[in-house]
Every structure is written in C-alpha cells, then in structure tokens.
Predict the 3D structure of the following.
Amino acid sequence: MFVRYSTKTMFSEAKCCRILIALLSYFGCVRAQCEPHELQTSGIMPMGLTITWKCSNVGLKSEFRIAYKYSDQCSSEDATLMEQQYTAWGQHGQFSPIPDPEFNVLYSYSTGLSELFPSSDYTFWIESRVQSGNGYIQSDELTFTTSDTAPTVSPINVTVPTMTDTSVSFSWNPLPCTQENGQNFRYAYSLREVLSNTYLKSDLTTETRVTIGNINLECNVNYEFQVAAVNDEGSSPAGGVDFSPEYGE
C-alpha cells in the first residue's frame, strides 16, 4: 500500500513547526536569534544621517539599541558613548507571530541619528534582541564622519583691552572645538569707522587676541570692530564691539 504525501501536507507541517517556534520565542521559551549585519550609512549631513541594517528573525517584534560614540578631536578625553533605542515590527511594520514561509527571512531596518557634531568621527554598532528575549546580540562596528559646514556661532565677549592713539587691541572667547564645524578653522576680523565703507584693517588669524597698529584713531570718533569664525565652508555671523577713543590731556 502506498501513502500519498502531498507537498501541501509537507508545507503545512513545516509551517506549523515555524509557528510553534515563533510562539515559543514570543512567550520567552526559546530565543529567536537576530544578529544585525550589513550596516550601512546614507544621507550623511553635518548633524545627522540615516543608518540601515538587516536582521533575520521569525517575524517577532524586535528591539534594537543603536550605540555610538565620538571622540572630541580637541581633547584627550575618552570617547563619549551615546545610545538610542529603536523598536521595529519588521520589514513592513506589522506584527505577527507567524513567520514568512522562509524561516530565516531577512528584514531591513533603518533609523536616523540626529543632533550629531559636524566634522566629527563616529563609531556605531547595533545591538538587537526580540522583545521577549534576554540579552542583546551585537553587530560589528562601523565608522563614519559627519560632513563639514560653516560655523554658526559668533565669537562672544569681544573687548578692547588696550588702546592708544596709534594702536588698539581686541580679544574674544575662543569657540569650542565642537563648534568649529570644519577644516582650516580661523577668525576673520575687521576694523572701520561706524557706517564707513573703508576698512582700516581686515585680516585672518588663528589667535583670539589681535593688536592693530600704525593707525590714526581720532578722538570721539565711533569705530566698529567685528570678528567671525571661519572655515573652508564659510563663516559665522560676526560678533563685535563699538568704541570711541577718549584720550587724556
């Protein structure tokens, strides 16, 4: 006697097996492995980007922890570690304890990272688990550099420490490293009479104090000193100070 064993019956048994594993995973009896891989970055901007990765699971809701760190290039401190939680339902954003016919189907995930520092080196990795699982599985690390942009913060506390009838000094607070935003950082400064189109002096410097000499500063004339932060991408709005020489007898 022959027993007919149809492909439909075989598929149904295989499907039932997968459903059982999915249910056991869902209720925490077994753990559905999901190791993130194929990490990629796209849309890199000065303060954010999109990251994508793939993971195989049994159709269960997955939790991901995106961990990333950056090193402040202006200090010797250890890299700062940050984390961002991300919960996904799967490829199409729908939850079902029933897996697709292919047990180890790959699901694609993506999320954005924001509030990053421009022109900075970052390292990130993905840690994953199914919602009912214990512990995380970590992916390999991936590094990227955010793009450069012009400084956005003006130098502050611009003052006139010393002044004579032929020279004047100016100083200001340095911008923090995380606000330089690009390569070849420096300061652009200028000195002129208020409302005049003629500059007595304009130049670039990497210092936060300059002395302008060999000029004739007239008494009771209003002058304007301005300074802006500059890199290869552009300059910030200018900060400055107005002053009027008043010399003693």
